[in-house]
Amino acid sequence: KYVSDVDHFHHIVHIPSALNSMEKVYDDVDSNAVMDIGAMSLLLSICASSTYAWSYQDDGRLLYASTTEARSQASSWLKAALDVMDHAQRTAHTSLECIQGMIILFFVFCNIEGLSQRARALHARSIAMARELSLHRIDAPNTPDVAKMTTTTIESSRRVWWFLVATDW
User: In angstroms, rounded to a whole number, what is the distance separating the alpha carbons of residues 113 and 105?
Assistant: First the structure.
């Protein structure tokens, strides 16, 4: 649902990388390992966004009994994603996946509440985290962390930063 109907609105997630992160979350759950906070926040945000955007045409996916059931779960996914993001903030966690999750939730809140205080707070937190990760310097010469990144991570970081810049104007 997310890939076919939601992702193209913000296009900040590299889907194959996100799928790998989600597999790792499930593997960590199965093995009782410590989970990656960023991957968990991205997964929960995608679930919140997908269930909120669920429509009658999606009933054929047979994931939920009805559109009403899918949409009723959106608030639970939202709460869970916000709880993980609050934990990330309390523990000073920073990651690209966490920022992506906040951007996705920003869109959900904008659709539900408009440009509310919660939506603006998520946006401000995502900008602060992006600056902490130096995403604003991703294309600057001699940026030390860029040498350690894969091409996919660099491009995803660039997309996230420019999305944040564009929505902040």
Answer: 12
How far apart (Å, rounded) are the C-alpha atoms in residues 90 and 93? 8
The answer to whether 77 and 48 are in contact (CB under 8 A) is yes
Question: How confident is the model at residue 79, as a pLDDT?
Answer: 94
Predicted TM-score of the model (pTM) = 0.87
> Tens of pLDDT along 156-167?
898 999 999 998
Q: Which residues of 88-107 are buried (b: 16+ CB within 10 A; e: fewer)?
A: beeeebbbbbbbbbbbbbbb
CA distance 147 to 63: 42
Rounded distance between C-alpha atoms, residue 51 and residue 70, angstroms: 5
Tokens of 12: 């900040």
Q: Is the pLDDT of residue 105 over 80?
A: yes
Contact status, residue 94 vs residue 133, Cβ threshold 8 Å: yes
Q: What is the DSSP letter of 139?
A: T
